């Protein structure tokens, strides 16, 4: 039996903000993602692969919380403690009040270390960051992150991508 590599929380956080973003952009461009459920599946897949060497970590999709009375798209546990909550949205231009409050409750009531709002607009520049600093308590500001994974293709490549997308979304 081989020894498992321990994954630190900081390594996981860095993976979500940097590597996961790159992997999802590739999935988006290669038409593995054509709707929100696909973003969730791809995110789950990449997180499981990253964490596979450390059995202390568990990733759950669409996890209901009795404490918040809401579903969380992805909830990552270290042993039995929730550490990271991820809300996923497809083709949004900004975070909604409902999504923001859901993540804020995960911070306050579940005690997660970080919350991520993962969104996939057509172009990263379309996404409007909303200054939530006045809505967040001082300690929450460093715990809440928006991860924007835009398709970011030039217009001619976007047209070709959109034509291929049609093959998968035309009402099969």
Mean pLDDT: 88
Q: What is the H-and-E element order? A: HHEEEHEEH
What characteristic shape results from the CA principal axes? globular
Strand residue content: 15-25%
Number of domains: 1
Q: What is the multimeric organization of the chains shown?
A: single chain
Largest sheet geometry = 5 strands, mixed
Distance between the termini: 46 Å
Spatially, the strands of the biggest sheet line up as 1-2-3-4-5
CATH architecture assignment name: 3-Layer(aba) Sandwich
| CATH fold-level assignment | Trna Endonuclease, Chain: A, domain 1
Structural class: alpha/beta
CATH class bucket: Alpha Beta
- How many H/I helical runs? 4
**Number of E-type strands:** 5
Parts with pLDDT < 50 across at least 5 consecutive residues: none
Helix content bin: 25-40%
Radius of gyration computed on alpha carbons: 17 Å
Descriptive account of the structure:
There is one protein chain. The chain has 172 residues and is an alpha/beta fold. It has one domain: Trna Endonuclease, Chain: A, domain 1 (3-Layer(aba) Sandwich). It is 38% helix and 23% strand. It has helices at residues 9-29, 36-51, 97-110, 155-169, and strands at 57-65, 70-78, 81-90, 114-120, 144-148. It has a five-stranded mixed sheet, sandwiched between helices. Helix 3 (97-110) links the parallel strand 3 (81-90) and strand 4 (114-120). Helix 1 packs across helix 2. The mean pLDDT is 88.
């Amino acid at each position: 039996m081989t020894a498992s590599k321990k994954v630190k929380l900081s390594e996981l956080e860095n993976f979500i903000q940097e590597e996961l973003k790159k992997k999802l952009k590739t999935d988006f461009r290669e038409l593995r993602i054509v709707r929100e459920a696909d973003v969730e599946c791809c995110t789950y897949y990449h997180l499981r692969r990253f964490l596979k060497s450390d059995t202390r970590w568990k990733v759950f999709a669409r996890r209901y919380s009795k404490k918040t009375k809401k579903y969380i798209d992805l909830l990552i546990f270290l042993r039995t403690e929730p550490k990271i909550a991820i809300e996923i949205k497809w083709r949004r231009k900004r975070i909604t009040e409902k999504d923001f409050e859901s993540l804020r409750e995960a911070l306050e009531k579940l005690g997660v270390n970080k919350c991520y709002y993962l969104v996939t607009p057509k172009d990263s520049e379309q996404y409007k960051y909303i200054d939530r600093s006045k809505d967040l308590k001082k300690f929450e500001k460093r715990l809440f992150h928006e991860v924007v994974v835009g398709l970011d293709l030039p217009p001619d490549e976007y047209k070709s991508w959109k034509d291929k997308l049609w093959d998968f979304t035309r009402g099969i």
